[in-house]
Amino acid sequence: MPTSEAAAIAAELRTAMGKLTRRVKHEDRIPLGQVAVLGALDRNGAMTTSDLAADQRVRPQSMARAVGLLMEQDLVTRRAHPTDGRKSLVELSDAGRAALEAERGRRVGWLARAIESELTDEERELLARSATLLDRLATR
User: Fold this and answer.
1) Which of 12, 85, 107, 120, CA to CA, is 20 to 30 A from 21?
2) Distance between start and end Cα atoms, the chain
3) According to the model, what pLDDT value does residue 27 have?
4) Cβ distance 60 to 50 under 8 Å?
5) DSSP secondary structure string, 17-66?
6) Is there a contact between 44 and 55 (Cβ–Cβ < 8 Å)?
7) What pTM, to 2 d.p., does this model score?
C-alpha cells in the first residue's frame, strides 16, 4: 500500500496532468481518435485495420469507420497486403503526415509558449527534470 505522502502526490499529479492534457487538446484541429490513428501509422508504418484496432484498443468496426473518414480527407491511403491477398494495409499519405506534424506543432507550440511566459528559469529547469521522471513512471 502506498504511503499517504505518495498517494497525495499521485492525486495532485493526476489532477494536474488531466488539466494540462485537456488544455493541450484544446489546440487540436483533428479529432483525437483520428490523430491517434495517424500517430500509430507514423510510429509503426503501414498496418491493417485489425492491427490498428488492436493498437488503439477499439473494435475493428470502429476503426474501419475512422480509417474511412481519414481516407475521405486523403490523410491515409490503402494498398494491397504484400503476402495476404485478403488484407490491405493502411498508411499515411503525404497530406496525413503534414497534418499530423501540424497538429503536433500546435500542441508543442502552445505548451512552449506557456512554459516561456509562465515559468521562471529555475521552474523550467525543475520541469525539465520532472519530465524525465514522468517518462520513467509512464514506462513502468
Assistant:
1) 120
2) 17
3) 85
4) yes
5) HHHHHHHHHTT-SS-HHHHHHHHHHHHH-SB-HHHHHHHHT--HHHHHHH
6) yes
7) 0.73
